[in-house]
Amino acid sequence: MIEIKDLSAGYDLNPKQRENAWKPVVSVPETCFSEGQITCIIGKNGCGKSTLLKNLLGLLPYQGSIRLFGEELRTLKPKERAARVGYLPQTLTLPKMSVYTLAAHGCFRRKKMFQTLAKSEREKIEAALDAADMSEYRDKTVSELSGGERQRAFLAMLMAQDPAFFLLDEVTSYMDVEHQKKTTEIVRRLAASGKGVVMTTHDLALGFSLSDRILVMNRGSILLGGTPEEVRREKTLLRACFGVTVGRSASKEALYAYELQN
Q1: DSSP-based three-state secondary structure for 218
Q2: Each residue of 134-144: pLDDT tens digit?
Q3: CATH code for 1-84+164-178+187-227?
Q4: How is the chain split into domains, by residue range?
């Protein structure tokens, strides 16, 4: 479990200063994230969604408490964090390596320099490629892939890393419908296997349809949290934040269980 209490977090303004060198961007009095559950953080661009994810990794300075399975985040070493949380950012670099080598980097994060992969780790890489539907692309260079394929290649790397929580920042952005469906199926399987998934999205219909729990963010604060059904009933708040509300899809053939409404 990830537990947050009295969190005030932000970005470095002057890395050379040790104190008062950061600007608070996110303020969260209390929330938590559980394994086996998909939590979707929704909100307009710039509301603090990505900042909150980065804080769960310890990438940004913070005050208050972020506890990963009972241990304070700031006290953990990088490899200890990697065993608990894996992160897929919205903007991906394109390394000059094969999909297999990229996936293997998930295992190397747990190893010392120059150690080779054990048989069990190579099997884990193969399983991750298969789970991400990327086995047939194993020998392709990452830069040769489409946007949706690249996201799944990086997901395979996180699966090989095998953290307890997957933090996914706008993971389906710029994907066509086919790649969106494949990616959401992977996310559902991760949660079904007991992994915790915390993801951000600006696609309200997808977020409500995919998640077990919704957090609505605005100006760095969590305004509302609950199940998709609980949150969708707060129509006044949703309309104030997004200009639209969300309701159950009328057609059984609809792509998502929820749809946007005026």
Answers
A1: strand
A2: 999 999 999 88
A3: 3.40.50.300
A4: 1-84+164-178+187-227, 94-162
